[in-house]
Amino acid sequence: MEILIKRRLIIYFILLLIYILGLLNFFFPVLRFQYQIANQIFVLFLLFIPWILVVKGFPLKSLLLKIINVIILIIPCLIAIPFAFIIFIGIVTFSYQYAFMPIHHLNLKSSFITAYQTNGGATTACGIVVRQEKKIFPGILLVKQLYKEYPREDILIKRVSDNVIEFGEKRFVLKRNVYIP
User: Fold this and answer.
1) I need a labelling partner for 44 at 20 to 30 A (CA). Which of 9, 87, 88, 94 fits?
2) Strand order in the sheet with 100-107
3) Between the ranges 76-80, 110-114, 122-126, where is the mean pLDDT highest?
């Protein structure tokens, strides 16, 4: 019985770690899937983790720990509901394709530069996000955001040399492995 409780706690803390790292990656992108639909499904999974953690917290021995678990996780659970609904509708209607649409692509020796047009949401005009991306596993990209501007509808990316690109009036010296020279 004690081994079962230890396994549940290990699973609980692994899910908690995935949730925290996933949220950090959502706001400060480092890893992304190559296909936008996979990113959407992963975020949908991420939004259900607080619900799973609430259920996984019930076998805790102490009533105080159960109450603390529910109190801490109730806000992420309630916040997750509308976001999960919006993401699910986006997946079903394929509107995720227009929210973050690649418009320019530039291949480099070890990575590539992609410019995305974002829809900006309901209250903002279109914007541009430029990222350096490198495949680290099939379907998984290491990502570094180079530039972001709202409002803007298009951008021209030029290669100046092997590791230097230019767009607008900005010039960037790129690292070979995105973050590591």
Assistant:
1) 9
2) 31-33, 140-149, 127-137, 112-118, 100-107
3) 76-80
Peptide bond into 151 cis (omega under 30): yes
Average pLDDT along the chain: 84
Structural domain including 130 reads: 101-173
Calculate the CA 177 to chain-centre distance: 19
Does a structural domain hold residue 180?
no
118 and 128 in contact (C-beta within 8 Å)? yes
pLDDT score, position 147: 85
What single DSSP character describes residue 95? T
Tens of pLDDT along 91-102?
Answer: 787 766 667 788
Residue 124 C-alpha from the chain's centroid: 20
State how many domains the chain has.
2
| Cα-trace Rg, the chain | 20
pLDDT in tens, 155-181: 888 888 878 888 877 888 888 777 766
Domain end call among 40, 67, 94: 94
Give pLDDT, residue 95.
Answer: 66
- Determine the Cα–Cα distance for residues 29 and 10; give it in Å rounded to an integer: 26
Assigned domain for 71 exists: yes
